[in-house]
Amino acid sequence: MPVTMDTLVSLSKRRGFVFQSSEIYGGTGSVWDYGPLGVELKQNIKRLWWRDFVQSRADMVGLDASILMHPMVWTASGHVDKFTDPMVDCHECRHRFRADHVDARPWTHYCPATKGNKFVIPAGEACGHCGARRTLCPECGKGELTAPRQFNLMFKTFMGPVEDEAALTYLRPETAQAMFVNFDNVLQSMRLKLPFGIAQAGRSFRNEITPGNFIFRTREFEQMEIEYFVNPHDTVEGRPADEWWHDRWIADCMAWFRRYGLREENLRLREHEKAELAHYAKRTVDIDYLFPIGWSELMGIANRSDYDLKQHSKFSGKSLTYFDEERKEHIVPFVVEPAAGVDRALLAFLADAYQEEEVRGEKRVVLRFHPELAPVKVAVLPLLKKREEIVRTAHGIRAALSRHFRVVYDDTAAIGRLYRRQDEVGTPYCVTVDVQTVGDRDKGESGDGRVTIRDRDSMQQVRVPEGELLPVFRGLLEDGDWGAVVARFGGVTADAGRSREGDP
Ligand SMILES: [Zn+2]
Ligand SMILES: [Zn+2]
Q1: What 3-state DSSP class applies to 414?
Q2: pTM (two decimals)
């Protein structure tokens, strides 16, 4: 059965992935805080995206622009005029709704046919007693709604000490515009040849009227965007270069999500209809994911033509062109924009990783994160916390591995419980140190210097010399090939779960 949003929200809070913002004050509207494990997961997503789409490619460079930009940026981009939703207000309770969402919610009705009794009627349905349909405010059931007014989704703020019109600016609603505005700076400083792309990951802000569904739609969020510039006069495999690259980016982005664990059956492409396309877009394709709320957009890949560079050139009076050496002409590049939300990607990875299974009659919750995404890579667990050599050895392993990955030490419960805790947050490997590792001086026995690695997914265990841990984990975290470790070290045993020495 697919995981529900409630399950993910509760796991996220309980295990330190995501907290409601300002919770002790009752929370703030649709903003969330990433806890100790959430921040690791989020950083891993951004790091892998950067590594795969920027670091490892010769045709990509990065940018980290400011959130506050010149207000003209948003006039040129069309956000001041067009980044709006139609809103209606209730005269009575002052509740504000998106005009196009009013009929999509249950409505409150004081029914005249039943002495004014209050009913809450499902969205779009009529009253079963009097046959009335909703005309008043769906929230309070009493107030008239205003006519729709356009409401801009950008957060306004003031730059400097005077709060007047001249100081008005905005928190950026997207990271994309900074890449267009810096097009010439990047081109000149890096001496780039088309096609090339600029990537940026950072925060954006949208004063959404109906945000919600946990971290799916929030007012403050993080984006990972790429603007890939192409010469529209070029052809690749007989097709216009912008169209060829658009398809290539769609395929590459799909492959990226699959590579880090999203299941094929939970992903699909959705082509935007002509009527749905933004006026500047030549074509847009979404990658949809089967979230707990149903199929929804995970990311969009748009062919924005030369619209943005032309707009900024027009409004700034600066030339934003590229000199085509071959044809000896100045051209305005076309741009393909793969735009992903970090928070949405995190929600998708979390939902896809979540599994409940039965192990020896007990429920096991496990997050099957790709090892590179997992917030914690290795947990080091001493089998007996009263034995000083065991504890010292375990701390030593944690310290040594921590220089390379996120590693934790835990001795606050019995081993079975410790394994389950790590399963629940997706830690791919545990290391246990036991009496065999360190030996028993009282009995004159020396240890074998081997520790146990336990694999999250198969729950198999293999004993490995302590000195081999770093190279073994380096390999495992890269390719997750547990079979290779088993083949090399042998002696597989099953995770002993509850009935292990050291359990109370
Ligand atoms: Zn009625
Ligand atoms: Zn109302």
Answers
A1: coil
A2: 0.90
pLDDT tens for 452-490 read: 999 999 999 999 999 999 999 999 998 789 999 999 998
CA of 149 to the centre of ligand 1 (A): 29
pLDDT surpassing 80 at residue 211: no
**Is residue 413 classed as helix, strand or coil in its secondary structure?**
coil
Judge whether residue 260 has pLDDT over 60: yes
**102 alpha carbon, closest ligand:** 2
How close is the Cα of 119 to the center of ligand 1, in Å?
A: 8
Q: Point out which residues pair with 227 in neighbouring strands.
A: 198
Integer Cα distance of 182 and 194 in angstroms: 16
Q: Is the pLDDT of residue 308 over 90?
A: yes
d(CA 9, CA 2): 14
Which 8-state DSSP code applies to residue 31? Answer: -
For residue 240, list its beta bridge partners. Answer: 235
Lowest mean pLDDT among 90-94, 473-477, 493-497: 493-497
Neighbours of ion ligand 1 (CB under 5 A): 111, 127, 129-130, 132
Instruction: Point out the ligand nearest to the CA of residue 93.
Output: 2
In this prediction, residue 496 carries a pLDDT of: 56
CA 116 – ligand 2 centroid, Å: 17
d(CA 316, CA 312): 6
Q: Which of 366, 402, 398 is nearest to 382 (CA)?
A: 398
Distances (CA, A) of 153 to 79, 83, 170, 204, 207: 9, 6, 10, 12, 5
Tokens representing 118?
A: 């209050």
From the CA of 91, how far away is ligand 1's center (Å)?
Answer: 21
CA-closest candidate to residue 153, choices 167, 170, 166: 170
pLDDT at 502 over 70: no
- Residue 422: phi, psi to the nearest 5? -70, -35
Ligand 1 geometric centre to CA of 98 (Å): 24
From the CA of 90, which ligand is nearest? 2
C-alpha 498 – ligand 2 centre gap (Å)? 56
